[in-house]
Structures are given as structure tokens and as C-alpha cells.
Design brief:
Radius of gyration: 32 Å
Structural class: mainly alpha
Number of domains: 2
Number of helices: 4
Distance between the termini: 95 Å
Order of helices and strands: HHHH
Oligomer: single chain
Length: about 100
């Protein structure tokens, strides 16, 4: 295993994403930049790609969310209804004043 690969693995084990700069800083001997880049690319190519499991919300979670949305919409409808009634009252007063 090359020193570049070892450095990449050490960084990865610590939860740090290896970069050219980090690798270059940790090398015990100078290495040409193209060698560092190719070493990093080779390390990345050999790493398993973890994909987060795709999970759909549970039926209960979906129902709860829909109930919240429904309650919110009902509040908006009630507010709009009150505004319409207020406007009707104002229009009636204006028409009576003329």
C-alpha cells in the first residue's frame, strides 16, 4: 500500500474526506502533484459507495401530516369566511348611507 493510500485511509477512518492538500501536508517525502492526484483518485475508486436507504414515510406519519394540513386549511377557510362576512357588512353599510 502506498503512502498516499495509507494517508487517505487514515483520514477516512477519522471521518475526514481526503483532499490533495491534506495528503500533501501529511506526506513524509515530497511527491509530484500528479502522483498525489492519481493516488487519491485510485483510493476513491476503490471505496464502497454507501447509499442512504430510501425510506418512505410510514402510513401513520402520512396521515398525521395530512391531518395537520387539513386543520391548517380549515383555519384559512374560516379566516376567509370571516373576511367575506366583514366585507359584506361594509358593503351593506355603504349602500345604506347613499
Amino acid at each position: 500500500m502506498s503512502e498516499i493510500t495509507k494517508i487517505c485511509q487514515t483520514l477516512t477512518d477519522k471521518g475526514i474526506t481526503p483532499t490533495v492538500g491534506l495528503i500533501k501536508a501529511k506526506l513524509t517525502q515530497k511527491a509530484p502533484l500528479p502522483d498525489i492526484i492519481s493516488g487519491l483518485k485510485a483510493f476513491q475508486a476503490n471505496q464502497p459507495h454507501e447509499s442512504a436507504p430510501i425510506t418512505a414515510p410510514s402510513l401513520t406519519d402520512r396521515v398525521v401530516e395530512l391531518e395537520k394540513r387539513c386543520a391548517n386549511q380549515q383555519e384559512h377557510i374560516q379566516t376567509l369566511h370571516e373576511q367575506v362576512e366583514s366585507l359584506r357588512f361594509m358593503v351593506k353599510q355603504l349602500s345604506n348611507n347613499q
